[in-house]
Each structure stands twice: as structure tokens, then as C-alpha cells.
């Protein structure tokens, strides 16, 4: 992957927060800082997973091999297999939480954290490629949702590959009436928003037989999107954006400094086929 210099990074470092920004920071919900490492037991499990040959883990329709998992070592560029496995974990957790929520009164294991998990749909990394290369009709994207009503979801999550040199996260947020783009290098988002609007309208015409009503909808870019400081970590940032969004988070509790820990945590999560939040 080519190395980029974030054009906004120096400006962000030099920019002094205004009074309004200071107030906004004060009012914003405070996140618990991430740990610097896993427990000794979990760190040992990660080391063991990295030594395991062949297929390391399977979940739903996804699987990850030893070569895929090695991409989560420092400076590795994440591939489709890692990102789609992680997306499957996100959607699986959402489906489990939805089922537990429906049985809440009879489920002693239902937790407050589960109650915050949104009803999400995840599109694989190949979705965006088909949409932008072939379009809705030629790409046969109507078939992708034959068994899913995306308009009933809280959020639709989409990893976006930009010409095989950069990963970002996109979301169709029905709760907030927003088309969202999260880019750890803050590049131009206009093509992402156009693609999301084109897809949403085409899908609504196909499933609901009418144009989508964009009244009240906005193209949303968070001013607090964490920024990477190298050319290798965009896939990790993208996975973490998607994971946070699936829990309804409005801000993110990680930065470039947390990426070494998050890479190790993702190896553990993939090996266990289970997400953790700390």
C-alpha cells in the first residue's frame, strides 16, 4: 500500500480549540481509555493463533487462514478476508442482541451493553466494488437483499475499498437520517456520498416501487474521526469504525496509539469468533 501524508494532520496539531470546541469537548460523553495490552493469558492465545497453520477460524460463511491472520501483525495491510470476517462478527452480534432483546423479560443474560447494540446489516467488501464498477442493475445488487429489508434496519454498514490503496467505512444511518463516511485520512467523500445516494434510491425503487425520499437526510462527516499516522492501518481503523457504529457510538474511543493493541485484540476476536469491547 502506498504511504500517504495526511494533508490535514499538521493543521490539526497546530489548531487551537475554540471556546465552542472546548465546551463541546466538556459536554461530550467520556469514553473509558482502551488498555495497552490484553491479559497475559489472552496475549499467549494470540501468539498461539499466529502460529497455527491453515484455516484458523470459521464463522458464518467466512473463514480466515494463517496468511490472512498474519496481516494483523504490525504494519500489515488488511485484506477482504479479515474485514469480512470482522463484519460477520459485527452482524452476528447484532442478530444475537436482537433475539435476546425480543426475549428480554425471560433472559437473565441480557445486559445493558446488549441493549445498546443496533440492528445492523453489513455488506461485504465486494458490495462497493460492484456498485461503483457495475452499477445497481448490472451488478445485480437487488439480489443481495432478497432476504433482508435494509429499510427496517437501524444502520447499514459498508467497508469501502478505494482503488486497492485505502479502506474507509460508510454507513446508511436510518436512525439519524444520515449518509455517513469515516475516513482515517480525511480524503474527499463526494464519490462515497454519491454512491450511497444512488444505491439507496435504486434499492427503494426495486423493493418499494418508488423513489427514496431524501427529505431531511444529510451527508455526514464527523469532525472527531480518528486519523492514522502511516499508510498501513486504514483497514484496522475501518473495522473499528464499523464496530463502534454498530453500538450506536457517536464518537470513537481510539486513536493511532491504540492500533497495536487493537490489532492484537482483533486476532483474539477472530480466533474466538467473538467480539469484545475492552
UniProtKB/TrEMBL annotation:
Residues 62-245 form the Ubiquitin-like protease family profile domain. Pfam families: Peptidase_C48 (PF02902). The keyword Hydrolase applies. GO terms for cellular component: nucleus. One of its GO terms (biological process) is regulation of macromolecule metabolic process. Keywords: Hydrolase, Protease, Thiol protease. GO terms for molecular function: deSUMOylase activity. Belongs to the peptidase C48 family. This is Ubiquitin-like protease family profile domain-containing protein. It comes from Lentinula raphanica.
